[in-house]
Amino acid sequence: MFAFPTKKAFLISSCFLWCVLVCNAQKRPFDKQKIDSILRVSETMEKDMKTVQLLVSSAGKNRYIKPTRTLIQRAIAISEAADDNEMRANSYYSMGNYHYFNAKLDSASYMLDKALTYISDDELPFIRSGILATKGGISSQNDAVSQSIVYTMQAREILDKLDTIELNEAQKKKRRGQSFVLANSLANLYNKVEDFETSLVYYDIANEAALKMGDLNAAGVIISNKGNLLLKMDRKKAALNAFNEGKELKVKAGAPTTSIAISNLNIGAAHLELNQEEEALSYLNSALSIFEERNYTSGIAEVLPQRGALYNKQAKYDLAIADCEKAKRLIDAIKVPELMSAACECLYEAYKSKGDFKSALDNYERFTIARDSVINEKNIKRLTQIEMQYDFNKKQEEQELVLQNEKRLKRNILAGLITLAVFSIVIILFLRKRMQYKNKLALQTETLQQQKITELQQKNKLIAMNSMIEGQEAERLRIAKDLHDSLGGLLSTVKAHFTTIQNEIEQLDALDLTGKTNALIDEACIEVRRISHNMMPHALSLSGLKGAIEDLGTHLQEQGYSVNVEIDNLPEALEPTKEVMIYRLIQEIISNIRKHAQASSILIQLIGHKNEVNLLVEDNGRGFTYETALAKGGLGLKSINSRVAYLDGTIDWDTQPNNGTSLTINIPIV
Which helix (H) or strand (E) element contains residue 483? Predict the structure, then answer.
């Protein structure tokens, strides 16, 4: 059978808790005469924070009904005249709450965001927490439950970070009250997204806070909410215990009879789920008696299908039909699809069992229609709020007739506002999605353009670097030719002249000047050839990279090193610029070994493999700690690393003090 009241009773209990927490201050209608009285009092006071607090607190205590807007506007005017950010924050926060309570969600968001602009992250924690809590409420109204949870968690985090030692008693009480409301809100939000375990945790936190505050009525409502959640989770016995505990707390607090009747209804539903029919019938009858006494149509319409379902279990089909037909008539007046679904299902089972298949079919059709209508959550929220407002108004027994009239008026106004809000939300969501699509498309286009710009910049950078290197190599070749052809020739000519002079002037032999001069000139010629060779070795231009590296190994052997050169499978079509860069890289590595390694043996291995060239250079020198050497800013290491990076290669240094050095470099060919 369909167990209906769980969700319905949960909504009733949640809204009743809101009434308990927010509305207790309203003991009589808040009319224009009282507003004028407060305004006159404020005019006699200094234009400071106390005046602003009087105005905004008066609006808040009266649930921000429309006449209170005058008070908040007066507070804003005083704040702007005083040019005080704390006063502004309080005033605009109050105006945000006013719009929220009057279902103007966009205006509420605007005012709350404006209030935040006057507060830094370490100022006015209670105001910041309150603003975030209201923004969470706005998100929940817009069905953005995840965002609502985020705002509410942020609001609670602000309060948790407060140092309670520095708070006075009033602030401590305010902190406990706000924390309690936020915990209950989080429980309801997690329940809404079906994170039931987290919801249970926050119900327990909220209940503990309510008990510490001594608010037994609120604690009773919270425990009842928890019971409804447990029943939804099929934890029936735990739910029954929670319902009984909640009722006990409400009775101790002297809660209104309608609130006690709701607890009886919940307890009866739990007994019914546990197949404890006698106990279920007793509690359902008790709830029905109170609802009928208070002429509470919604409560009656909720109990009758439950009792009808119980009669069906007991095969008392005539009693079930009587209850559910009566419920249908009541529900037709109040238009609650969820209740109609339960009543029609009860009648379908009863008529089918009695063999009246035509009536059974009629009720089954109405059941399916009502069940489909239940998915409209906004309608359920609207009707629940109306019922809870009715319950609150009934609580004011001394003004029962006046409050009943107000209820009818508020119902019509609220229905119109909700209809307008739903229409506005649909339009806003459509426009927002359209704007999000446009923004996403623009962002993607911008990203593609930026990628193209980056690629072009990198390409230009590579072209520029390549041109620079080619220019450097061309300049080196020119200098090398100049040294060899010009300075080298000049030195040879000088040497020839000195030889002629030596042959003609016998006296110079005794001084041995010509011998010394010849030695110096020979040394200069050798040095010119060495510089010229280093700047543009003939082996590289004559026999390519392989010949140049072998020539480099020969020079190292002439200098006393034990050298092993291994070159294999080099690609034939290697770019000249890349050949020069690889040769210069090996030159730099060998230069570092000669300067610092104190090595006697060097291995140079260059092997082509697939689409890359692998270079391995090893020595048996003293080694070093790579991180330490790099931190000292050695130019040799930086030069080697930068050359490898330019070639888009990878480099691995394997070295330790007294264990030599092994350098592995992989350079892509393409």
Answer: none
DSSP states of 248-267: HHHHHHT--HHHHHHHHHHH
Measure the CA–CA gap between 39 and 603, rounded to whole angstroms. 95
564 or 647: which leads in pLDDT: 564
pLDDT at 235: 92
Helix (H) or strand (E) holding 607: strand 601-609
Q: Are 621 and 598 in contact (CB under 8 A)?
A: yes
- pLDDT tens readout for residues 394-404: 444 555 666 57
Cα dist. 647→466, 469, 552, 618, 634 in Å? 10, 12, 21, 21, 21
Could you tell me if 514 and 498 are in contact, meaning their C-beta atoms sit under 8 angstroms apart?
Answer: yes
* Contact status, residue 221 vs residue 20, Cβ threshold 8 Å: yes
- Dihedral (Cα; 417, 418, 420, 421), 10-degree rounding: 110
Among candidate residues 246, 303, 239, the one with its CA nearest the CA of residue 271: 239
Q: Give the SS3 label for residue 119.
A: coil
Which residues have CB under 8 Å from 537's CB, separation 6+? 548, 551, 552, 583
Distance CA 186, CA 125 (A): 19
- Residues 437-465 have pLDDT tens digits of 888 888 888 888 888 887 777 676 555 45
Pick the CATH number of 542-668 from 3.40.190.10, 3.30.70.1230, 3.30.565.10, 1.10.510.10: 3.30.565.10
pTM > 0.70: no
CATH superfamily of 1-28+255-391: Tetratricopeptide repeat domain (1.25.40.10)
| pLDDT computed for residue 616 by the predictor | 93
**What's the CA gap between 93 and 300, in Å, rounded?**
40
Backbone angles phi, psi at 123, to 5 degrees: -115, 150
One-character DSSP codes across 277-340: HHHHHHHHHHHHHHHHHTT-HHHHHHHHHHHHHHHHHTT-HHHHHHHHHHHHHHHHHH--HHHH
